[in-house]
C-alpha cells in the first residue's frame, strides 16, 4: 500500500499561474492510524512553501497563440512539480489546471484552444494522472472559486473538525470567506438558520467525508462580482474620470499621492517628461484620501435594481448576513492592501477600521517625493516597490468601500457590536487574539499554511477518496440544495485511477484513454484489414503464410512435420530455432539484384527536455527496411533474395561453385534458399561475415541445397 497521495493544481489567474503541490496519507492507511478525534475530521493535507511557484503573465495572454502556452509557460510549472514529487508517484498524481477571471473574458474559441493545448501538452510531456480534460483542465466559475476558498478557510480554522470549539452562537460554527483578485471578488458563507430556510433555493449543498467515512453536509451561499476586483475597479474609475472631462489633458486624481503623474494605464510619468502630452490625458495626484473615498463609492453600483431582495451591491441577491455569528476572513487583496504597508508591525492584529483608515490617510497625504524616498530605503519592507506604493491609496479606498458600504461589515473601532458569543472564555480570548471572532479579519496564512482556494479543491478531492461507511451514502461534491444528486452536481475529480503498473505503459496517451468503447471497434477494423490483405496477396503467398503459421505451432505439412514441431513455439522457447528452414518462393530470381537490405538505424527521438528523471516519455524509432538500388521491384521478389544473394556470395568465397552456376540452378528450379540463421533475423546474436560459425552455417546450408 502506498503511504502518500499527491495532487497538483495550477491556479491560472489573470496576472499569472501558480503551481501548488499537496499530499495526504492514503485514506485506508490514515483510517487505520487515526485516533477517535481524527476519524471525525477531514483528511490531513500537507504542503510546503518550496512546493509552490508562480510565473507571469497568465495563460489568457496566449489566446492568439495557444501553441506557445505549453513550451513558454506550462513547462516551467510542470518541471517544478516533477522535482518535488517522487518519480514512482507521478502516474498516481492527479493534475488540475483551473483558470479564473482572466480566462473568463477570453472569446470562447480562444479559451477552448488554450485549454485543449494545456491538456495535450501535459499528456505528451508528463505522466500525471489526467483522464478527463473537461474535468481536470477548465475555467471555473467565480462561485466555485469562492466555495473552494470557504472550504480552505474553515478547514484551517478548525470549523469542520471541532464544531464545539468554534460555536459562534445560534448553533453556528463555520466562518465566512471573502476573496478579491484583480478582476473579480467573491463571498461565501453559511447563513443563519432563519436565512437558510428563507433562501434555501439560493444555497449550494456541499458534501464532504471524514477520515472515518462519515458524511458532512453544509449549505453555503456563494456569489461572485465580476468587474469588482481591484484592477477592474481601477479601470472603471479612470474611465469615469475621462468621461467627466473628455477634453482635459490633466485630470486631478485624489487617489494618487500629491505630485505623482501617471498615464491612464497607470504608468508613472517622470517629472519633466512630455511623453503623454499631445497624445492622451494623464492623471495628476492630489493626495486627498477622503475625496478618493467619495469618488470610489459609486463604483459599488448600489443603485442598480434588486430583483431578488435582499441585495448588497450591483443588484445581486445575497441573503442577510448575521454578523453576530458570521465572522469573515479575507484573502488576496484584502490581506495585501491592509498589511503590506499599513500593518507591518501588526500582522497578527485584528482589522480595526478606525486605526486602518488613520494609517491610510497618513500615508496617502504624503508627497510622492517623500513616498519614493521611503520605498528606496525599505521603510515599508523590501516587498513594497514603487508600483505597490503608487496603487495602494486607490486599493485601500476601494477595499474600505467594498467591506463596509458594500458588504456591510461593521466598522470596528467606531460602531458598537451587539450580541454575544456562546462559548467558553478561554476559547473567546484565543480567538480574539487571532481576530477570528471579529466581523472581519484579513489573513494570508493560518497555522503556517496559505489560505488558498486551491487547498479547498484538494480537500474535496482527498475527501472523495475515502471509502464511505455505508453503500447508501451519496458522493462527495457539490450542487443544488436538494435531496439526492441532480445533473448539475460537481464531482471533485472523477474516480481515482491507479497506475496500471508497467513503466512503459503510457496510460494517459493511449488511443483509448478518452473512450474505452473504441477498443472493440478498433480490433474489428484491424481484423478486416488483415483479411483483405490476406485475400489480395495471391495464392502462393497465402499458402506460404499458412505453412509458416502451421510450423510456428508445430502443425506443418507431413514432409517437414517433425522439423516443424522442433521449430514451433516450444523450439523457440528452448533454443531450437537455429535449425535451417527451407521455403518455396515465386520464380523470378533475377530480381535479387535489385534489392539491398539497409543498415539498422536507431534514431533517438526524445523530444522531452525536462530535467526531472523519468518525468517525460522518450520515443525511439528505426527499422531495418529494404531499399531498392534502382528501378522498380518486379512482382514476386521478396526480402528473402537478400539472404540468397549473401549465401551465393559465401559459396563463391568457399570455392564450391561459381556464382553464375548457382544462379542458373535457381532460375531452372525456381527455388530459393533462406539461409540466414534465426538468431540474425529475430534480433539474437549476430556473427561477422568472416566468422567461423557463419562459414559453417553457410557450408551446411549449401550442402543441403546441393543434395
From TrEMBL:
* UniProt-annotated binding residues for ATP: 182-186
Recorded coiled-coil stretches: none
Pfam families assigned to the protein according to its UniProt record, in alphabetical order: GDA1_CD39 (PF01150)
- What are the leading ranks of the lineage? Eukaryota, Fungi, Dikarya, Ascomycota, Pezizomycotina
Instruction: Quote the InterPro entries the UniProt record gives.
Output: GDA1_CD39_NTPase
| Top-level lineage group | Eukaryota
What are this entry's molecular-function GO terms? ATP binding; GDP phosphatase activity; ribonucleoside triphosphate phosphatase activity; UDP phosphatase activity
Q: What name does this protein carry?
A: Nucleoside phosphatase family-domain-containing protein
List this protein's GO terms for biological process.
CTP metabolic process; UDP catabolic process
The transmembrane segments are: 519-538
Amino acid at each position: 500500500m502506498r503511504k502518500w497521495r499527491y495532487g497538483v493544481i495550477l491556479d491560472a489567474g489573470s496576472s499569472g499561474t501558480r503551481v501548488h503541490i499537496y499530499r495526504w496519507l492514503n485514506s485506508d492507511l490514515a483510517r487505520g492510524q487515526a485516533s477517535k478525534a481524527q476519524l471525525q475530521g477531514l483528511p490531513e493535507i500537507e504542503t510546503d512553501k518550496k512546493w509552490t511557484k508562480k510565473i507571469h503573465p497568465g495563460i489568457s495572454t496566449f489566446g492568439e497563440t495557444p501553441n506557445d502556452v505549453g513550451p513558454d509557460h506550462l513547462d516551467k510549472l510542470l518541471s517544478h512539480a516533477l522535482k518535488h514529487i517522487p518519480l514512482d508517484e507521478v502516474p498516481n498524481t492527479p493534475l488540475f489546471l483551473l483558470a479564473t477571471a482572466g480566462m473568463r473574458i477570453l472569446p470562447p474559441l480562444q479559451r477552448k484552444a488554450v485549454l485543449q493545448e494545456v491538456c495535450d501538452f501535459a499528456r505528451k510531456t508528463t505522466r500525471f494522472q489526467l483522464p478527463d480534460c473537461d474535468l481536470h483542465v477548465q475555467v471555473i466559475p467565480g462561485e466555485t472559486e469562492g466555495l473552494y476558498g470557504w472550504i480552505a478557510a474553515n478547514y484551517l480554522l478548525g470549523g469542520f473538525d471541532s464544531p464545539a470549539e468554534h460555536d459562534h452562537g445560534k448553533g453556528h460554527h463555520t466562518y465566512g470567506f471573502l476573496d478579491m483578485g484583480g478582476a473579480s471578488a467573491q463571498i461565501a458563507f453559511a447563513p443563519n438558520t432563519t436565512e437558510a430556510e428563507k433562501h434555501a433555493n439560493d444555497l449550494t449543498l456541499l458534501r464532504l467525508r471524514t477520515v472515518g467515512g462519515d458524511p458532512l453536509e453544509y449549505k453555503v451561499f456563494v456569489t461572485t462580482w465580476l468587474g469588482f476586483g481591484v484592477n477592474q475597479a481601477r479601470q472603471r474609475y479612470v474611465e469615469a474620470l475621462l468621461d467627466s472631462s473628455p477634453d482635459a489633458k490633466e485630470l486631478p486624481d485624489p487617489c494618487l499621492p500629491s505630485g505623482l503623474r501617471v498615464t491612464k494605464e497607470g504608468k508613472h510619468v517622470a517629472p519633466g517628461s512630455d511623453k503623454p502630452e499631445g497624445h492622451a490625458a494623464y492623471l495628476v495626484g492630489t493626495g486627498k484620501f477622503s475625496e478618493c473615498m467619495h469618488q470610489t463609492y459609486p463604483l459599488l453600483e448600489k443603485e442598480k435594481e434588486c430583483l431578488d431582495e435582499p441585495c448588497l451591491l450591483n443588484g445581486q441577491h445575497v441573503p442577510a448576513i448575521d454578523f453576530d455569528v458570521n465572522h469573515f476572513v479575507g484573502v488576496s487583496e484584502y490581506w495585501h492592501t491592509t498589511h503590506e504597508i499599513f500593518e507591518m508591525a501588526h500582522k497578527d492584529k485584528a482589522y480595526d477600521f478606525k486605526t486602518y483608515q488613520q494609517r491610510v490617510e497618513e500615508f496617502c497625504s504624503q508627497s510622492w517625493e517623500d513616498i519614493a524616498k521611503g520605498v528606496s530605503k525599505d521603510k515599508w519592507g523590501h516587498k513594497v516597490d514603487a508600483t505597490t506604493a503608487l496603487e495602494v491609496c486607490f486599493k485601500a479606498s476601494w477595499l474600505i468601500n467594498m467591506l463596509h458600504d458594500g458588504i456591510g461589515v461593521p466598522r470596528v473601532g467606531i460602531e458598537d457590536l451587539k450580541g454575544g458569543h456562546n462559548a467558553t472564555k478561554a476559547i473567546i480570548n484565543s480567538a480574539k487574539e487571532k481576530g477570528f471572532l471579529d466581523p472581519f479579519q484579513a489573513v494570508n496564512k493560518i497555522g503556517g499554511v496559505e489560505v488558498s482556494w486551491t487547498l479547498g479543491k484538494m480537500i474535496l478531492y482527498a475527501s472523495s477518496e475515502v471509502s464511505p461507511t455505508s453503500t447508501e451514502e451519496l458522493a462527495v461534491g457539490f450542487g443544488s440544495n436538494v435531496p439526492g444528486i441532480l445533473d448539475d452536481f460537481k464531482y471533485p475529480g472523477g474516480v481515482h485511477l491507479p497506475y496500471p503498473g508497467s513503466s512503459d505503459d503510457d496510460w494517459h496517451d493511449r488511443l483509448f484513454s478518452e473512450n474505452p468503447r473504441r477498443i472493440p471497434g478498433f480490433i474489428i477494423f484491424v481484423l478486416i484489414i488483415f483479411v483483405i490483405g490476406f485475400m489480395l496477396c495471391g495464392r502462393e503467398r497465402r499458402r506460404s503464410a499458412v505453412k509458416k503459421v502451421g510450423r510456428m505451432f508445430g502443425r506443418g505439412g507431413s514432409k517437414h512435420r517433425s522439423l516443424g514441431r522442433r521449430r514451433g513455439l516450444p523450439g523457440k522457447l528452448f533454443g531450437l530455432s537455429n535449425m535451417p528452414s527451407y521455403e518455396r518462393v515465386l520464380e523470378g530470381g533475377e530480381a535479387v539484384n535489385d534489392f539491398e537490405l539497409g543498415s539498422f538505424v536507431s534514431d533517438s527521438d526524445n523530444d522531452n527536455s525536462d530535467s526531472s528523471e523519468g518525468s517525460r516519455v522518450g520515443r525511439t524509432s528505426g527499422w531495418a527496411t529494404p531499399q531498392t538500388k534502382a528501378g522498380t521491384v518486379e512482382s514476386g521478389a521478396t526480402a528473402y533474395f537478400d539472404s540468397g544473394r549473401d549465401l551465393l556470395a559465401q559459396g563463391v568465397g568457399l570455392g564450391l561453385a561459381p556464382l553464375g552456376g548457382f544462379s542458373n540452378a535457381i532460375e531452372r528450379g525456381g527455388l530459393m534458399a533462406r539461409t540466414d540463421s534465426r538468431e540474425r533475423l529475430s534480433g539474437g546474436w549476430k556473427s561477422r561475415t568472416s566468422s567461423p560459425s557463419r562459414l559453417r552455417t553457410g557450408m551446411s546450408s549449401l550442402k543441403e541445397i546441393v543434395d
